[in-house]
Amino acid sequence: MTKDQITKFLLSTSPEVLLKTANEVRVQYCGKVVYIRGLVEFSNHCCRQCLYCGLRAENKTLQRYRMTHDEIMETVCRIAKDSIGTVVLQSGDDFSYTRNDISTLVRDIKREFPHMAVTLSIGERSLDDYQAFRDNGADRYLLKHETINEKLYACLHPGQELKDRLMRLDHLRKLGYQVGIGNIVGLPGQTIQDLVDDILFIQDFQPDMIGISPFISQNDTPLRDMVSPDLSLVLRCIALARIVTKNAHIPSATAVNTLDPDRGDALALTSGANVLMVSYTPIRNRPHYQIYSGKKSLELDRALEMISAVGCKACLKRGDSLKYSQETENVHTAVGNPAPKIPSA
Ligand code: 5AD
């Protein structure tokens, strides 16, 4: 899509055609299937100072926790018992888990559950760390670019630079990871032009996975008084990401559900999203993974209910990237399909 097309869609007051087209593209390229992932938020310690995030190091009010190797393995075991084929291991940027700790964890998961895909979402590490995790069997890496506006990025992430994140994304891909990127919609200071640039970046990068979530303020951060965007703007971004990538895996972010607890997930799933992340974080830890205020967790039974409510089938299998995988069950393969017709704005 061109810059002008994307801008028109983001500004349009009647997004129905866009959302409907994105839903059709999802069905055509991903099937009427919603993939389920098991999420373990294993540490809320973080050395970064991202202004929007409740895990930021300077937030002294947050009760911090770290799960041990054995606790994480027990949780992965619960995910395997529910027949879910992907575990997403997520944490703040917590270097108390060394290269060796994470490598051992990945290796042990792969030894116990050889068919399970392991996704890491543990932030910016050294390139040698990424190599070691991959060598030990990690399949996927999520590292959201958050915003492609260099100045805004620098302002919201004290001490960090966008170019370092982009360099890591290129490197992760070279290492053979399935790579996830994504932006936050409605960040203070963000313009529509910035969001257009995010979509153009997604189109250019062609990631395997995309996480798009609305900004929601967290009470113990410097951005506590900032408002969230309309759900409609978030849905438009999800829809555009679907149309420009066709078969990327796009979860309905928990933040979408927090914006609208009754309809958020269902609307995301009918506007291009095709993945749900179910929480397996131990109940005692959940209230402390406060990246934003009012964060909700999704349970498996609720996810399954929602999937049938939107007329889809749940897929618990590993659900690798559709960009390379030959997994055809329930999926109309992308190979040879014509490009979707993009309606005029
Ligand atoms: N609103 C929305 N998303 C947030 N994240 C962190 N804080 C917020 C917030 N206030 C997301 C970021 C980050 C991940 C840890 O959570 O995208 O990558």
- Low-confidence blocks of residues: 327-338
What characterizes the major β-sheet? 8 strands, parallel
User: What is the 3D shape?
Assistant: globular
Calculate Rg over CA atoms: 19 Å
Number of strands: 10
What is the average of the pLDDT values? 94
**What string gives the helices and strands in order?**
HHEHEHEHEHHEEHEEHHHEHE
* Unique bound compounds: 5'-deoxyadenosine
Estimated helix fraction:
25-40%
Overall structural class, as computed from helix and strand content, comes to alpha/beta
CA-CA gap between termini: 12 Å
Strand content: 5-15%
Helical run tally = 12
Characterise the protein shown here:
The protein has about 350 residues and is α/β, with parallel strands linked by helices. About 40% of the residues lie in helices and about 10% in strands. The protein has helices at about 5-10, 15-30, 70-80, 100-110, 125-135, 150-155, 160-175, 190-205, 230-245, 255-260, 265-270, 300-310; strands at about 35-45, 85-90, 115-120, 140, 180, 185, 210, 215, 275-280, 315. Strands 1, 2, 3, 4, 5, 7, 9 and 10 form an eight-stranded parallel β-sheet that branches. Helix 1 packs across helix 8 (about 190-205). The radius of gyration is 19 Å and the shape is globular. It starts with a helix and ends in a 30-residue tail after the last strand. Bound molecules: 5'-deoxyadenosine. 5'-deoxyadenosine binds near residues 53 and 146.
Sequence-ordered SSE layout with sheet pairings:
Layout: H1 3-11, H2 16-30, E1 33-43, H3 69-81, E2 86-91, H4 99-112, E3 117-121, H5 127-135, E4 140-142, H6 150-156, H7 162-174, E5 178-181, E6 184-185, H8 192-205, E7 209-210, E8 213-214, H9 231-245, H10 254-259, H11 264-269, E9 275-279, H12 300-309, E10 313-315
Parallel strand pairs: 1-2, 1-9, 1-10, 2-3, 3-4, 4-5, 5-7, 6-8
Helix pairs in contact: 1-8, 2-9, 3-4, 4-5, 8-9
The chain binds 5'-deoxyadenosine.
The site of 5'-deoxyadenosine (5AD) has 12 residues, from loops.
